[in-house]
Amino acid sequence: MNFVKKLSNILDTIVSTISGVIMSVLTVITLSGVVFRYVFGNPLAWVYEFTIVSFVWMIFLGTAMAFKKNEHISLDFVVSNLPPKVQYYWREGIYVICIIFLLFASFNGFKVTMSTWGQSFNTIPVRKGVFYLSFSVAAIPAIVHIFVHMMELKIGDKVGHDPRVTIEDNQEGGVL
Questions:
Q1: Are 169 and 175 in contact (CB under 8 A)?
Q2: CA distance 125 to 123
Q3: Contacts of 79 (CB under 8 A, 6+ apart)
Q4: N or C: more exposed end of the chain, with fewer CB within 10 A?
Q5: Nearest CA to 22 among 52, 48, 43, 46?
Q6: Is residue 102 assigned to a domain?
Q7: pLDDT(2) > 90
Q8: 10 Å Cβ neighbour count for 124?
Q9: Looking at residues 87-113, what average pLDDT do you find?
Q10: Is residue 135 part of a domain?
Q11: Residue 176 lies in a domain
Q12: 8-state DSSP, 125
């Protein structure tokens, strides 16, 4: 369990760092595009495609980060009013569905990546497959994060407490 938790933390650090770099570069490039277009009257043709590719990577990396923090949109007000045993099975079922979806979509996304790898964008020297690869790459840390949440849920169920209590709480002598 500790290995998976450490792997989750390492992947989150990598994803957060890459997201921060992409966001910083995206901000500079977008601002430069505006300045070149409206101040110098000479727009940079490649800014649009670069922005699209960057945004797609940000979206899917952000999805993995949201899985780490367990902050995806959910109907908490409904689930929190269910009996504890039903809450457990509900959350477990949602995690399984998420993993199945991520595996299925990642596999198919990789097939699309391979089929578009030979194509290039018009204005940036990047293969179109890089655009589609974003989902498959971001699915890896997302699946690891979901496994950690599933293990935390199982630990909570064995002791009979709130399933949102984390493994660290258990190891540090917290509420368990």
A1: yes
A2: 7
A3: 87, 90, 91
A4: N
A5: 52
A6: yes
A7: no
A8: 16
A9: 94
A10: yes
A11: no
A12: S
CB–CB of 80/87 below 8 Å?
yes
Select the more confidently predicted residue: 56 or 176. 56
What letter represents residue 115's amino acid?
A: S
21: which residues sit within 8 A by CB, 6+ positions away? none
- Give the length of the chain: 176
* pLDDT band, very low/low/confident/very high, at 157 (cuts 50, 70, 90): low
Q: How many domains does the chain have?
A: 1
Q: How many whole angstroms separate alpha carbon 130 and alpha carbon 140?
A: 16
- Asked if residue 68 is part of any domain, the answer here is yes
Q: Please report where in the chains the tokens 């960057």 appear, as a residue.
A: 54
HEC profile for 159-175?
HCCCCCCCHHHHHCCCC
- The neighbour count for residue 142, using CB atoms within 10 Å, is 25
Contacts for 123 with CB less than 8 Å, ≥ 6 apart: 45, 46, 48, 49, 50
Residue 56 tokens read as 């797609």
If you search the block for the tokens 């099975």, which residue do you land on? 89
